[in-house]
Sequence to fold (209 residues):
Amino acid sequence: MSRGCKRASDGGRPTLGSVPGLGHNGGPSLEPGALWRTHAWRSAQKKLMPNTLPKLVLQMRLKRAAELGMDYKTYAKVRQTSGQDVLGLLFSSNALRLLKDPRLPEVERARLAHLKRAERLALTYPPLRPSEVARVNPEIDAADTAPVFTEGWTEMRAKLQGVMRQRGLSGASVLVIGDAPLENEWAAAGRAAAYLSAAEYFGASARRP
Fold:
């Protein structure tokens, strides 16, 4: 017979010392090995706790994702990474499909027009002129020249952080959206919240080539 289930002499029932009494919370015993049992018990209790956001918070974040033109899953991942809300989106001219014509294509124009409570920034490559891109596209709040591959990391960082500071934004509150080699490095250089490809952000509706 096991030591943990001693029998009393009166009818073979367990003694009072062998089972928890009234008011016992089912926690670990204080016998040898109690430290490990306490850890295991607390871990089990934690797993039973709800692991979901309060309904009101979830509703607010769903709304915010829609304001940013993002699906909730992507927005939640970006927010978890940065630890704060997205207050700006920085697009490369490649991501906006701006090549020679400074005017935004219809799909990209419509998406940017519906963004709410977020700065809309663009970095453009020649022959596009940032001032002209900003002038003909009211959907873009500010534009500047994009870093080029011949520039070093220091110059890239200064340019990325400079355009953010001009709009009063911290890097961690800005999402970078690109569509060409090396543009994914902009996020690290600017200490941005995250990087998304144009296909991830605009989706199939953009009919990207």
Observations:
- The CA atoms of residues 172 and 193 lie 4 Å apart.
